[in-house]
Each structure stands twice: as structure tokens, then as C-alpha cells.
Amino acid sequence: MVRKILVAPAPIGWRVQSDGFANDMLFLSGAKAESSARGLAVKIADQGEPTQIEVRLRDGSLGGRFVCSPARGLEREHAEP
Hints:
alpha+beta; six-stranded mixed β-sheet; 6 strands
């Protein structure tokens, strides 16, 4: 099963959420939120579980999707325009 991590806008700043942890993480910067999500994805993949990061923009559209597999590391999937 693929673990999913979502980076999305919050009322103030950005949030990182996953079914793998109980509370969302909040950041003032979208870049910080995305960096934290990438770090989590690598740690989860190092433990043998594939991970997908989905980044949403302020308008709700998909900004990017990244996959981190245990064997290959972090890769960017195509993002919808």
C-alpha cells in the first residue's frame, strides 16, 4: 500500500497531513511544508513503504505529485497544468 502525504493551504499558512500521523503539521511557508513532506516521504520509504506526496495550490488545483519508492528515492510525477 502507498502512504499518502498531502501538502495543502491552511487558513493561515500551509498544512501537511497524512493518515500516518494523528495531527496535521502547520507551516507559514509552502516551501517549508513541501520540504517537510519530502523528508517524511524519504524516511517512510527507508522503512520499506512507498510514499506519494500531493501538493495542492491555493486555488485547490494540483501543483505537483511526487513518489518516493523504497528502491528509487524521490521522483516527480507529471503535474496537471
